[in-house]
Amino acid sequence: MQKTELNIALLSWQTLECVPSASGIVKSKESYYVIGDDSPYLFHIDKNFKLISKAQIYSIEKLQGITIPKIDKPDFEAMEMVSETEILIFGSGSKSPERDVCILVEIGIQTIYTKYDISLFYKHLRNLEIMKGFELDIEALAFDGNLVYLFNRGRNLIFSFSYKKFIDYCKTGTNFPIPKSTLYALPKINGLEAGFSGATIFEDKSYLIFTAAVENAPNAYDDGEILGSFIGVIPLENGTISDHFLIQQIPNPGFPLKVEGITIDRIISNTQTDLILVTDNDGKSSEILTLRMTVNKIDN
Q1: Least confident range of 33-42, 110-119, 203-212, 219-228
Q2: Alpha-carbon torsion 61, 62, 67, 73, what sign?
Q3: What tens digit of pLDDT does each residue of 259-288 get?
Q4: Among 39, 119, 225, 254, which is least packed by CB within 10 angstroms?
């Protein structure tokens, strides 16, 4: 009989000065794109995590200094590459209508973005039976080429639905995507359950990789004391996600981390992967971390 084991090692971490409230990251070729939950910009950084450029992807009308005030921000929390030149970004939906927004960004010589109002789609998620008594708080996104996986924090659910139908719906208002939902119970710190915070997918589409964070907050809108973060993997087969997962707590570099975004940096072997993670420290400088993850199958 074989048992699967997850091991992680923190290789490096440093301050990410150029991005406020970092909440999502993707890798594109040899560089990265990062979002902040209170910023109207998409930040392009190099392999040394230095700023290359930033492009506006949201209105700057309410911008105060380098950030948008909490009451007005779109709360960009979920992002993923959906093609070699396109990035999909979701607001959290934790405050309507300000956060009921989706952005499709085309990267290249010029950065072009299209904003979609997804209030009706988010209303459908809020009204699902499985969401009764809980708040919508979309924090992460993964994409397998056909399906979108949205991760909700608090009520730890993964919503999966057709990407083609979703984009058709955004553009035309028709072909409404009907999501499936899968519920998870995540580990706790000091009696508080972790909430999904970041996600991506292995290139061979065999696993979803996710992060989850714990903070002592009363609801999806307010911030609270940061207590730590986890990383885990969920087996994936033909678009069907398992209700089983592996998870480990991320080592703290001297203080608790609230990891908010994750992307694959390089695949070393079929068991070992280097990952890049970003943190949102609620008003303090963001951090960027390199983590090595090993998923081993061992004889039992």
Answers
A1: 219-228
A2: negative
A3: 999 999 999 998 899 999 999 876 667 999
A4: 254
Alpha helices in the chain (DSSP H): 119-126, 163-172
Q: Under 8 Å CB-to-CB from 32, ≥6 apart: which residues?
A: 25, 26, 44, 45, 46, 47, 49, 263, 276
Distance of CA 168 to the CA centre of its chain: 23
Are the beta carbons of 290 and 275 closer than 8 angstroms? yes
The whole-chain average pLDDT of the chain stands at 92
The amino acid occupying position 300 is: N
Classified by CATH at the fold level, domain 2-299 comes out as Neuraminidase (2.120.10)
Cα Rg of the chain (Å, integer): 18
Give the model confidence (pLDDT) of 167-183 as tens digits.
Answer: 999 999 888 999 999 99
Contact 281, 226 (CB under 8 A): yes
Which H helix or E strand runs over 294? strand 285-299
CA angle 203, 39, 215 (to 5 degrees): 75
**DSSP code of residue 153:** T
